[in-house]
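User: I'm putting together notes for a lab meeting next week and I want to include a structural view of one of the chains we've been expressing. I don't have a solved structure, so I'd like a prediction I can at least talk through. The sequence is below, exactly as it appears in our construct file.
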Amino acid sequence: MKNIMICAAAAAATSVVAPAAASAQAVPAAVVAVVDLGRVTSDCTACKSASAALRSQVTALQGRERSLLAPLETEGKAIQAAADALKGAQPDAALQTRARTFEQKRQQVAQQLQREQAQVERNQAYIRQQIATKLGPIYQQVMQRRGANLLVETSTTLATSTSVDVTTDVLTALNSALPSVQTTAPAQAQAQPQGR
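Assistant: Thanks for the context. Below is the predicted structure for the 196-residue chain, given as structure tokens.
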């Protein structure tokens, strides 16, 4: 009798679970497309002009760095020569003041260059953000148009067929959706002092 009850309970449980499992949707077969994101981000019209603008910003920063550091280097060598001439004797007040002033200038220049370098890095990140914002919907549109349900970056594949490559589609759509990008990031919000 116990065996009959157990078999009946098992049959009842199976009849409840089986329809639920059958109603779950099967995962469709993968239809894969690939995109060469490196080519897209280097060949898009807005990307090329943004890259040129960034190169210009970096070149300007390097020139500024040279123009700020050259006089400091000259001054540092002069101070060091004056200190060496003392042959271990204590420097006078004028040389000590000159050395302190030099160190303050050196720190100010380093901070200024650091701020300018950070701005270039923010600009670069802002450009990437603008491109990525446009690419997300483009991926979906291209996948839908080409009947794909999975899009993979070409660099992560071992081999592909040109028939699954949608790079040109993505590049064309990006050129249309993003004719230009802003190459200067918005100003960072200043930290607000906290009240007491």
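A couple of points you could mention at the meeting. The chain has five helices and two strands. Confidence is low (pLDDT under 50) at residues 4-14.

User: Perfect, that's what I needed.
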